[in-house]
Design goal:
The complex is a heterodimer of chains A (380) and B (128).
Chain A: E1 5-6, H1 27-32, E2 36-40, E3 43-48, H2 52-61, E4 64-67, E5 72-77, H3 81-88, E6 102-108, E7 114-124, E8 127-132, H4 137-148, E9 154-157, E10 161-167, H5 171-176, H6 181-187, E11 195-198, E12 201-204, E13 213-219, H7 223-232, E14 236-237, H8 240-249, H9 286-295, E15 299-306, E16 317-320, E17 324-334, E18 339-347, E19 353-358, E20 361-368, E21 373-374, E22 377-378
Parallel strand pairs in A: 4-14
Antiparallel strand pairs in A: 2-3, 4-10, 5-8, 5-9, 6-7, 7-8, 10-13, 11-12, 12-13, 15-18, 15-20, 16-17, 16-19, 17-18, 19-20, 21-22
Helix pairs in contact in A: 2-8
Chain B: E1 9-11, E2 15-19, E3 25-29, H1 31-37, E4 40-44, E5 51-52, E6 57-63, E7 66-71, E8 76-81, H2 84-87, H3 91-94, E9 103-107, H4 110-113, H5 119-127
Antiparallel strand pairs in B: 1-2, 2-3, 3-9, 4-6, 5-8, 6-7, 8-9
Classes of the chains: A alpha+beta (380), B alpha+beta (128).
């Protein structure tokens, strides 16, 4: 057997490297559960706890939990908090009026490229909480601070919390069973994309798997105890490997793969996240996006299902007969579908089928909307 | 510590070879290899009757995170492949030395068999 062609997806895995990264409050929990630890963007994180395919199935069929403490929480407070975020983000925080309600948005540069994708929670008119990616932390904080200069607003990284995502059809019931009665009341009937701030925990009904569940900010000192309660309740620890196959099945973008600073949201299946109305809202990147729309956007991000044998990976050539070429941005073998799926950026006119160049051979693939599984059921 | 059965032969590229009574050999990848790869999701096996030379790239094993070539451990002809791996590639992880066998071949160069490593030599290789 030869040297590995390691498919770095996300791009920063280096298994076997001497680990000297940052550790989350759940680090000991990972080791106790037999995690294989890898470097991820400077953090020592669990790749899996034995089998990422088993972990994937656990989330689709029951419940699993992911340490996501490496992600960055930024509190945006002050008189101009709303106006600042309306300038900073392509989606409009004015849509959020109920405390705890959240939305998903891109944060663009002046050329209309995506600096990061994120979730922002409205707490009140002078108080918002933003969660950005781990790998883009330094860049995001510097950008947010720079844009804040002309506003009366405070941008503060919040390091008080560990974060745990509990996902799956049984996630809500299992998590509720370990909450205090006050917390249970606070999350009763919690809507999708809404958070409850309760007894020091920030519990949001959001996720990155396509299943129901929570993403929970837990005070650092409570982290291990909370993990152990969930473990005792039968929640399966899941690592970054499963996280990637789950999000891809759910059609969710991975920053760094499916888009980056050189890519417009219009070419990353993020057009739906742009709030063009009201027209007077001049968010950063608006002019560039408007120009792109005017000129016609050249590419689109589509989903692919491989129709021959093999596995789709990122950076594979896509051949679109009579039209041109594209490139895959993500790919894997889908544990739920038992077929290979992926995402690719292809010319706008691409139709229903393409060919992928895999190890020198052209293999056919079907073009689909980039969402392959919803609530455990195949869509393709 | 991975399993290195003493009744098999090995090559440094992490394949095991079992010398059968009928003069054929059975080939697969070692426990060490399947551990490094992670969950195997796809195996591409050689064509039956194809003639291969020592160290030709003749098969591919893909896991969730890596793809790796399999090299012919001996020169010869492929006489059988394990078709069960098409529907159950994960057998390579759960049973690398038995049900996870990949192909059988009829060696054409007796002398090459002497170059195969025994279990002690292979175990020492993966110790490093």
């Amino acid at each position: 057997m030869g040297e590995f062609a390691l498919y770095n997806s996300p791009p920063i895995f280096t298994a076997g490297k001497t680990l000297m990264g940052k550790q989350t409050p759940f680090f000991d929990c990972h080791n106790q559960s037999g995690a294989k630890i890898v470097d991820f963007g400077g953090w020592d994180m669990p790749l899996n706890y034995g089998s990422q395919i088993e972990e994937h199935h656990a989330v689709r069929q029951d419940v699993g939990m992911f340490d996501v403490s490496h992600m960055t929480i930024v509190d945006v407070t002050g008189d101009d908090a709303k106006a600042y975020l309306q300038k900073l983000l392509a989606n409009d925080v004015a849509k959020l009026s109920k405390s705890g309600k959240a939305l998903y948005s891109g944060m663009l540069n002046e050329q209309g490229g995506v600096i990061d994708d994120l979730i922002v929670y409205y707490l009140d008119d002078t108080n918002y909480r933003v969660v950005v990616n781990a790998s883009t932390r330094d860049k995001d904080l510097a950008w947010m601070a720079k844009q804040a200069e002309s506003f009366s607003v405070n941008i503060n990284e919040n390091n008080d919390f560990a974060m745990l995502a509990v996902q799956g059809p049984n996630a809500i019931a299992k998590t509720n069973s370990v909450l205090s009665s006050a917390q249970q009341q606070a999350v009763e009937g919690l809507g999708v994309f809404v958070a409850a701030d309760t007894e020091g925990y920030f519990i949001a009904r959001t996720g990155y798997t396509g299943e129901d569940g929570y993403e929970i900010m837990v005070p650092n000192s409570d982290a291990e105890a909370f993990w152990n309660k969930l473990l005792a309740a039968g929640v399966k620890p899941c690592g970054l490997g499963a996280r990637d196959t789950l999000r891809l099945e759910a059609g969710m973008n991975l920053y760094g793969n499916d888009m980056d600073e050189t890519i417009s949201p219009l070419e990353a299946n993020m057009g739906w996240t742009i709030a063009w109305e009201p027209q007077e809202r001049d968010f950063i990147g608006r002019a560039a996006l408007a120009a792109q729309k005017e000129a016609g956007v050249a590419n689109k991000l589509v989903g692919l299902v491989l129709e021959g044998k093999g596995v789709i990976r990122s950076h594979m050539k896509v051949v679109v007969e009579g039209i041109g070429e594209g490139e895959t941005t993500s790919g894997t073998m889908s544990p739920t579908l038992k077929k290979s799926i992926g995402m690719a950026r292809v010319p706008k006119a691409t139709g229903e089928s393409v060919m992928l160049e895999i190890r020198g051979k052209l293999i056919p693939a079907k073009v689909v909307k980039p969402c392959f599984v919803r609530k455990g059921e195949p869509l393709v | 510590m991975s399993n290195v059965p003493s009744d098999l032969k090995y090559v440094t590229s992490h394949e095991w070879i079992r010398l059968e009574d009928d003069g054929t050999v059975t080939v697969g990848i070692t426990d060490h290899a399947q551990e490094l790869l992670g969950d195997v999701v796809y195996v591409e096996l050689p064509e039956i009757d194809s003639e291969v030379a020592l160290e030709d790239e003749i098969a591919v094993v893909e896991s969730v995170k890596a793809a790796s070539d399999i090299y012919a451990p001996l020169s010869g002809t492929i006489v059988a492949v394990n078709e069960a791996l098409e529907d159950a590639p994960e057998t390579v992880n759960s049973s690398p030395y038995d049900d996870g066998w990949m192909f059988k071949m009829k060696p054409s160069e007796e002398s090459e068999i002497n170059n195969l490593l025994d279990s002690e030599a292979y175990a020492a290789e993966i110790e490093d």
